[in-house]
Specification:
- By secondary structure, this protein is mainly β.
- The protein has 2 domains: about 230 residues; about 180 residues, no CATH class.
- The chain contains 2 helices and 42 strands.
- Strand 40 and strand 41 form a beta hairpin.
- The termini are far apart.
């Protein structure tokens, strides 16, 4: 009798204990109750894969839209050969799915999809790879852009020695766009996107971007980034917006236009594109533009790297500068590697402003010259030199145009009074002379 009572008490205590969700390695059920990753009874054995050593396995299932409802970390994710009905695993805002071990293994033969979302108040989901985790093969990551002013978008991020492997990264732009980071064999592919193209917040890394014939607009999050991979696509074009700098250091092969609408497009590698610089935009760099460059009104072209770093920018075809556009030439010394040069292999069609900028306290002396512009042929000339007078008003710049190059020359400043001032001085002198003669005549007996 005592034994039965004790057993009954024990059983009652078990029912009274709270339900605990344990972190384990588990497989997604054939018929889960919901699509919530963080619900234990959607897995076999019962428990949520959410731990440093845990592996989440996905096979045959009637529910393939799975989303996290809290921050989640796993060592790896496995898609078995039975996962032929592709999954979409979503990092819902504002949660993070962190993959910190082996990464993703896809044995299904199908492309498996991952997605980050953005909330109504600007919060966003993240998928983060750390340590040596890999994004695997036949996987696609779609990051959705921010929809509120000042907001950013969802992101797929690779830290440590993790790699995008052969994954495809896709960015869907909101009002600001997502941050796209491509490393290894990771890629951004918008070639199948509906025209006219896609807007992203920023791009960085060394992967590849496939444009097809679409336009990729970059810069809505105002970050400054470096992309050393290849942007490619027959007819594909690029538009730079935002206040940040996009530094392209790779050999890019897209053939559509590059439009610098705002911020800085810095070409330290090469682009095969006609490039148009517009109001508030700057084209800079030490690389090659294999096309024509048109510097439109209130645009700026600045050969060299970051501000304060002179360099040579090469334009393979023609350079055209309009009435209110500016060419900035940075000068840190008289040696050839200490001042900027715009090297135009075609025609230079000039008007507008030339702005020589002295760096690091350097002040040239009278007679020093700087060959700052090379060209095969010349049309026109600069209409105005900014900061023409310098060194406390003692020196001034002048430009000499020769058949194949233009030269900045330092001269002594010559002050030529205007006609009104000359007339006033002559009048005052004549009055003084008349007054003096009258005083002399009054003094005679």
């Amino acid at each position: 009798m005592k034994t039965l009572i004790v057993a009954a008490i024990r059983c009652s205590l078990l029912f009274l204990l709270p339900s605990v969700t344990y972190a384990i390695s588990a497989q997604w059920d054939l018929d889960p109750i919901s699509g919530d990753w963080n619900r234990a009874d959607n897995w076999t054995p019962n428990g949520v894969p959410n731990g440093l050593a845990d592996v989440a396995t996905f096979g045959l299932s009637n529910t393939t839209n799975v989303s996290i409802s809290g921050d989640t970390e796993v060592n790896g994710i496995i898609f078995t050969s039975e996962a032929t009905n592709p999954y979409t695993i979503t990092a819902s805002a504002p949660f993070t799915l962190r993959i910190s071990g082996t990464g993703i293994t896809n044995n299904s033969g199908s492309t498996q999809h991952f997605m980050t979302t953005v909330g109504a108040n600007g919060e966003f989901g993240l998928i983060v790879f750390t340590n040596s985790a890999t994004a695997g093969t036949s996987t696609m990551f779609t990051n959705n852009g921010g929809t509120v002013s000042g907001g950013t978008g969802g992101s797929t991020v690779f830290h440590g020695s993790s790699t995008a492997a052969s994954a495809i990264l896709v960015a869907n732009g909101g009002s600001n766009g997502s941050r796209v980071e491509l490393f290894g064999n990771g890629s951004l592919d918008i070639s199948a996107h509906a025209a006219p193209g896609v807007t992203i917040g920023s791009i960085e890394g060394d992967g590849d971007a496939f444009l097809g014939a679409n336009n990729l607009t970059i810069g809505g999050n105002n970050l400054s980034t470096t992309f050393s991979g290849v942007i490619q696509g027959a007819g594909g074009s690029l538009t730079k917006i935002g206040t940040g700098t996009l530094d392209l250091t790779g050999a890019n092969t897209y053939t559509g236009n590059s439009n610098v609408n705002r911020g800085v497009l810095q070409v330290d590698g090469s682009i095969t594109s006609n490039t148009f610089v517009t109001h508030r935009g700057t084209l800079a760099g030490t690389g090659t533009v294999d096309g024509n460059v048109v510097n439109n009104d209130f645009g700026t072209v600045r050969p060299g790297g970051v501000l304060g770093a002179p360099g040579v920018l090469t334009v393979v075809h023609n350079y055209t500068q309009t009435q209110y556009a500016t060419l900035i030439i940075q000068i840190a010394g008289a040696s050839p590697d200490q001042f900027s040069v715009l090297n135009v292999l075609g025609n230079a069609n000039l008007t507008g402003f030339l702005d020589p900028v002295l760096l690091n306290g350097f002040v040239p002396t009278i007679g020093q010259t700087f060959t700052f512009l090379n060209y095969a042929s010349l049309t026109g000339e600069f209409s105005h030199i900014k900061h023409r007078v310098f060194d406390n008003g003692l020196l001034q710049w002048s430009v000499i145009y020769e058949p194949n190059h233009a030269i900045l020359t330092v001269e002594s400043r010559t002050i030529v009074p205007d006609q009104g001032s000359t007339f006033l001085l002559l009048t005052l002198g004549l009055l003084s002379l008349v007054t003096y003669r009258r005083q002399l005549l009054r003094g005679q007996p």
